[in-house]
Write a structure and sequence with these properties.
alpha/beta; 7 helices; globular; 35% helix
Amino acid sequence: MDIRIEKRTIINDETDWLIVAPPKGGLEQWKDGRSAKEFARFVTKFHDSFSKIIKEIVEKNLHYTPESLTGEPEAKTDLPPTRSSGPRNHDLLLFDDRIVIGIEAKVDEPFGDKTILQEKKDASKDKAARIEWLKETILPEGCEIKDDDVKGLRYQLFTATAGTLLAAYDQDKSYCIFLVLSFHQKGGKITQKAKSNKESFDEFVKVVCSKGQYCQKFTVKRDGETEGKQITCWFIEKDIAFTPQTFDIE
């Protein structure tokens, strides 16, 4: 299976990636051991390993083998209402004619600085409207942000899920995957931040999906629409052990 990485031009290595798709924080974020650079290095230098992971995930969950996928780093997806804050930035957005895969890469960074409840407390009128849209789109019917089992969920997991769903919606796809790739040093101890990220991800999926499932069907619509589109999303977290020069897939 071939995966072509491009953004206005073909991306062959991490240098190309930095030039055409730098992280939000620029060179300050582009460091060894940080997710932006390590992820770009993994996707380009260890392309076969990355392709193998994606192929196995799609085959296991959607029961087909993609012939090829196209990937755009730092792809942007607008979230309603568009004036409330910036778009969702995907670390990498993959797609073919059947599926969209939104990828979030983490080394030792948390899922954002705030929970959704903290965001709600500090929100402007427009930001509150976005949070309400996120709640209506992602949470099960009748579930409120003030509930004890919801208030601690990370806001970034809501926007990442919504961005993946809307990317599928915009491309008229019925299926998507929100994939978290968690990098950790080979042979080293799993850090507390990494453990916390896994717990945050599992807690989020437990609330959003049906009991015991890592898959859910959502009704997705843009501003002003009444019907929307049914989109099924899988939630997957994959651990990747790495050293400065090589990656090992666990």
